[in-house]
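ugh finaly. both done.
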Amino acid sequence: RQEIRRLTVFGLAPIPLLFELGRLISDISTADVRQLLRHPKGWKWDPSTAPIEYNLSRPDQPSSAVALKLEVSAPVADGRIRTVLGPEAAIWSISAVGAHNDIVRRPEDIAAFAKLFRKTLDDIKLVHGENTKVNVFPVVPVSIAVEAGRSWHPKAHPPLAIYDQNWKLNGFALAHTLEHTS
């Protein structure tokens, strides 16, 4: 009902739940998504840091199983994804140069990720078809997870199956899905 004009989001939760939080907020609402910095500790942005450089890598050929690695906090070995989806999985990747767990320090870093994430989902749909499901393997800061959920459009983007590292199962396990509703 447009009662809330602006939100400031301080997300601390498991990454798949933060995707859902972002989906619920959506990008229609104005939201300032924050990132808890580890050093120096706090929620204040550090505008003196250089912008994050993101890279997109695409698979050589399409496949029925499509993966999207989000490698912002750390790299993810393809073998970990192939263990879950099979050896023929088409693996896309959005990675940050110099990935580490305290990399997001400016709001522009989040905005740049969101733009690339939306474009990548559009490209995956073009390459793999309208009915593809994207299996997402996120290794990201909390702000990126929230923004990814906000950036996903149910009428425009493929469904997302979001995986999370599960030490009891010795690898990634399906944790949540973002799907189209009727």
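ok and the 2nd:
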Amino acid sequence: RQCAAVIPCHDEAASIGEVVAGVRQHLPTVIVVDDGSEDGTANAASQAGAEIIRLPRNTGKGAALQAGWQRAHTRGFTWALNLDGDGQHRPEDIRTFLRCADETGALMIVGNRMHRSQAIPWLRRTVNRWMSRQLSARAGQPLPDSQCGFRLLNLPAWAALRLETDHFEIESEILLAFVHAGYRVEFVPIQVIGEGPHSHIHPLKDTWRWLQWWQRDNRG
């Protein structure tokens, strides 16, 4: 009960209700951040028992996650369990994250899909591996699946950091921020489902955003 699930969503009405119902079997509090959806995402999530944050326009995954983390932190939760709303993550893996936090003392635990990477589309798998190599070199430790959005993070640790990105590059930014702050980061194997019915990642545009962030971070 020290942990709340935070799910950023944009136009996930077809899947979010089932995702929320599955997560609530493991965590009673689920916060869905409706990132400017134009379908019934908020209603479907609410009917399944989620608490809703509605953003008036599509601001990006990073901004939506930060809004969810802020709500959970304000409400007094110590941990946030993040997963996507399209059904590509299995709620039963939540126990693996919580067990790893208890056993290792890590302040961030990230899902690792690389044991069955063939289930990830080729282009995304290739980009993920390249990004993970760059981040691992800068972090000075292995970060095998740096782009996985299924994560558990410690909210007081997050609140002490300054994060600037608004889109998918937040996955990389927060990993490096935790490592550079001296926080322990662990990876745990998770079930690999591939993509949901539609992915919001645009490989070229989001890779370009990532490269722009990478250059800024390198200069910093």
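summary for the 2nd one i guess: The beta strands are 3-9, 30-35, 51-55, 79-82, 108-112, 151-154, 185-189.
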